[in-house]
Write a structure and sequence with these properties.
With about 400 residues, the chain is α/β, with parallel strands linked by helices. The protein contains eleven helices and 18 strands. The longest helix is centred in the first third of the chain and has 19 residues, at about 65-85.
Length: about 400
């Protein structure tokens, strides 16, 4: 089965902000997208044949990005562990249980552990709001601006779609009054505060566009878009709440198994700009909090603790001990699945044996002598997949 259509591709433009992921991957003729298609097709070719492969095929080609992301993450997990030397079976039956994990993992014919994969994405409401913002950026790219590109800053969300004419007229009026030579000198001398700008306000939504002079090379580049830099919205690092909820939801499906269980969680959100061990640790063991003791209206002593609301430790007691480890990823997508955060966090309270020496990726392992999680380096995604993307 071919994930992508056998067609002549002539589209070399970058993806629009509102483009569906699969649609762009399928139609683009850009060299980097050709390499991505080739790599993903190879991963899929090695996926076990059967009903699961057909389901993955249909879901991967979905116009719904959430469905597409979910299918790709299963393809990715299978490819990652297969390339690392394991053999995987999809949705294996487990005696005495109706629930089936996504994968059972073998080496040298011996069953080692199970993997349950899931993705964590923004709410449907947030997704719809972002679609309106993306549509606005696409409209900004339609405006004819031969001499300036747009540095965009925004905050809040729009309640409805904006018509192109409502923003094009004031922007063109401003651009027609801007001297490229004058502002290019300001730009070269790094007097960025002197560059022209325009602002739009709509209820809670605020938008500022700074007009930045184009270089000669940018003027000649037909694929260079107006919107070349964006900041604002709710950019953040990966949040502990997303991880916590995903783990708890999956953990409820399982009783104690006869082999270790890993829950793989891929947090997908355009607003995630980084992944941080502190956030993952907070999701698993509880958020950090500062405790202090007052005496005579003065702080006498302080200490650091956790709120005990984690996915592994909750209200002074270990929970989800049937989960051996969680594999946490951030924005591992079909567009970019190398050079991403991916780390295996072991559950120190697990009923089953540890997998420390079985899995070659970077991981956090419990050191029971000092009661702390310690980092153990491993092989990167890029090196496991042997990817040249």
């Amino acid at each position: 089965m071919e994930l992508f259509d056998s067609i002549e591709r002539r589209e070399f433009k970058p993806a629009k902000y509102s483009d569906g992921i699969y649609s762009y991957l399928n139609l683009s003729a850009r060299e980097e997208i050709v390499r991505i298609r080739k790599a993903i097709q190879e991963f899929f070719d090695n996926y076990p044949n059967g009903d699961d492969k057909l389901r993955i095929f249909q879901s991967f080609r979905s116009k719904d990005d959430h469905v597409h992301h979910s299918a790709f993450f299963e393809i990715f997990i299978h490819a990652l562990f297969s390339k690392a030397g394991y053999k995987l079976k999809t949705h294996p039956e487990i005696e005495g249980m109706e629930t089936r994990p996504d994968f059972s993992v073998f080496k040298n014919g011996k069953l080692l552990f199970y993997i349950e994969a899931t993705i964590s994405t923004p709410s449907k409401d947030d997704f719809k709001k972002q679609k309106i913002i993306d549509d606005l950026f696409d409209k900004l790219n339609k405006i004819k601006s031969p001499n300036f590109w747009f540095q965009v800053h925004y905050s809040g969300y729009l309640e409805s779609y904006i018509k192109l004419k409502d923003i094009e007229k004031p922007i063109m009026h401003k651009l027609n009054r801007c001297s490229i030579d004058k502002y290019y000198e300001f730009y070269k001398s790094e007097n960025f505060n002197l560059l022209p700008n325009i602002c739009f306000n709509s209820n809670s939504f605020k938008l500022e566009i700074i007009f930045v002079p184009k270089t000669e090379a940018q003027k000649k580049d037909n694929n260079f878009r107006n919107v070349a830099m964006i900041s604002g919205g709710a950019y953040r690092i990966i949040t502990e709440d997303e991880i916590n909820k995903s783990i708890r939801k999956k953990a409820k499906k399982y009783n104690l198994l006869n082999h270790p269980l890993i829950i793989a969680v891929n947090c997908i959100d355009d607003k995630i700009i980084n992944a941080d061990d502190d956030d993952v640790s907070s999701a698993l063991f509880g958020k950090h909090q500062v405790n202090f003791h007052m005496k005579d209206h003065k702080v006498e002593d302080t200490s650091l603790s956790r709120d005990n609301k984690g996915a592994f430790f909750h209200r002074q007691s270990p929970i989800n001990s049937r989960i051996n480890a969680v594999l946490i990823g951030a924005n591992i997508t079909s567009f970019n699945f190398v050079n991403k955060y991916l780390k295996l966090w072991h559950n120190p309270y697990s009923y089953t044996s540890q997998l420390v020496d079985l899995i070659p990726i970077p991981q956090m392992i419990p050191n029971y002598e000092v009661s702390a999680m310690e980092f153990r380096d491993g092989i990167s995604i890029e090196n496991i997949l042997k990817s040249n993307l």
